[in-house]
Specification:
By secondary structure, the chain is mostly helical. It has a single domain, classed as Heme Oxygenase, Chain A, CATH 1.20.910. Helix content is 63%, strand content 2%. It has 13 helices and 2 strands; from the N terminus they run E-E-H-H-H-H-H-H-H-H-H-H-H-H-H. A two-stranded antiparallel ribbon has the order 1-2. The termini are far apart.
Length: 308
C-alpha cells in the first residue's frame, strides 16, 4: 500500500498523513512541522534531484535493449560485485543500528537478500509444514516469492538468495559462479562504490548511516530497475529466450516498499532531540556521489569498449 501524502505547500515538500495526525493531536508543534517540511524540501533538492536519479546516461542507454553480449557480461560482472559486496555494508548497518527497531528493519533487508522469503500478511508461521519438498522449492522460485510482508517467520531457501538469482542470469550469458561477485572482478569505480557503501551505509554514526540509507533506498526506487528490466526483456525477446530475469523483475517490484519504510523511519528519527541534520545530508550526498561513480564508470567503459 502506498503511503498517503498531503501537500502542504505549492512546492515539492510534502508531509505524510502520519505527521498531519501528530500535529492535530498536539504531539508536534506547527513550528516543528514547518521545519520538517523545509527539511523535506532540502532532501528533494539534494537527493531526489541528483543527476544520477534524474539523468543516468548508462541505464537510459541500457533500457533501449541494444547491449551486446560482451557489454551484458561486463555489466553483470560489475553489478554482481556491487550486489554481493552490499551484504557487507548491510551487515554493518544491522550491527551499528542504534535501536532494536532499526536493527530489525536492517535485518529484514539483509535476511531477505540471503534467502529468507517474505511471509505474506496474514500467513501464519509454520503454515508451510504440510508442503511437499517440490512445493517448498517452488516457493523459493524468485518468480513466485512475495514482495510484501516480513522475514519474521519466513522460510529460508538457498535458491531464494538474491545472488543465486543473479547467477541464473549470468549463466544464460556463459558466465558461472566463479566469474562474478568477487572484488577481483570489480573495476576501480565499482569497488569505490562498494567501499563507500561500507563506510556510509554501514557507518557507526547513526546520522550518517540514516542519510546514506535513505538516499540508497530512494535511488533504488527512482526508476533504474525499470530501465534495466526494459532492456533485458528486449534482449530476451530478440536473442536470448531462455535468459532468466527474475533478479531484475523482482527488485523492480519490491524497491518501492523499501523506500516507503525509509520515509517512516526518517519521520521517527527527525523529531528526536539528537537528530543531526547536517550529518544526515552528508551521508546522503556522499553515497549518491559514489553511486554516480559506479554508473559513470560503466558508461565510460561502454564508450571506451573496456570489458573484463
Amino acid at each position: 500500500m502506498m503511503t498517503q501524502v498531503i501537500v502542504v505547500s505549492p512546492g515539492n515538500s510534502t508531509i505524510s498523513a502520519r505527521i498531519e495526525k501528530r500535529l492535530r493531536q498536539g504531539e508536534l508543534a506547527q513550528k516543528q512541522v514547518d521545519e520538517f517540511q523545509e527539511f523535506l524540501a532540502e532532501v528533494d533538492r539534494e537527493f531526489f534531484q541528483h543527476r544520477i536519479l534524474t539523468e543516468n546516461a548508462y541505464t537510459f542507454w541500457f533500457g533501449n535493449g541494444m547491449a551486446t553480449d560482451e557489454e551484458l557480461r561486463h555489466f553483470l560482472r560489475q553489478f554482481s560485485v556491487f550486489s554481493n559486496q552490499f551484504l557487507v555494508a548491510a551487515l554493518l548497518k544491522e550491527i551499528n543500528s542504534p535501536t532494536l527497531q532499526q536493527s530489525r528493519a536492517s535485518r529484514e533487508i539483509l535476511l531477505n537478500e540471503l534467502g529468507v522469503i517474505y511471509r505474506k500478511p496474514g500467513q501464519s508461521i509454520g503454515s508451510h509444514v504440510a508442503q511437499t519438498e517440490e512445493e517448498k522449492e517452488r516457493q523459493g522460485d524468485p518468480e513466485l516469492v512475495s514482495t510484501e510482508g516480513t522475514v519474521d517467520g519466513g522460510i529460508c531457501h538457498f535458491r531464494a538468495a538474491h545472488f543465486e538469482w543473479l547467477i541464473g542470469v549470468a549463466e544464460g550469458l556463459g558466465l558461472s559462479y566463479a566469474d562474478i561477485g568477487k572484488r577481483k572482478h570489480g573495476r576501480a569505480t565499482t569497488l569505490h562504490f562498494c567501499d563507500e557503501l561500507i563506510r556510509l551505509y554501514g557507518s557507526d554514526d547513526p546520522h550518517i548511516a540514516e542519510g546514506a540509507s535513505f538516499a540508497v533506498e530512494n535511488w533504488a526506487a527512482a526508476g533504474f530497475w525499470q530501465e534495466l528490466e526494459d532492456g533485458l526483456i528486449q534482449i530476451k525477446q530478440r536473442r536470448h529466450p531462455h535468459l532468466r530475469l527474475a533478479f531484475f523483475t523482482w527488485h523492480n517490484r519490491v524497491e518501492a516498499q523499501h523506500a516507503i519504510h525509509t520515509l517512516e523511519e526518517l519521520e521517527e528519527v527527525y523529531f528526536k532531540p539528537d537528530f543531526d541534520r547536517a550529518k544526515f545530508m552528508q551521508g546522503g550526498r556522499e553515497i549518491l556521489e559514489a553511486i554516480a561513480v559506479f554508473w559513470d564508470g560503466l558508461n565510460d567503459d561502454r564508450l571506451n569498449h573496456v570489458y573484463i
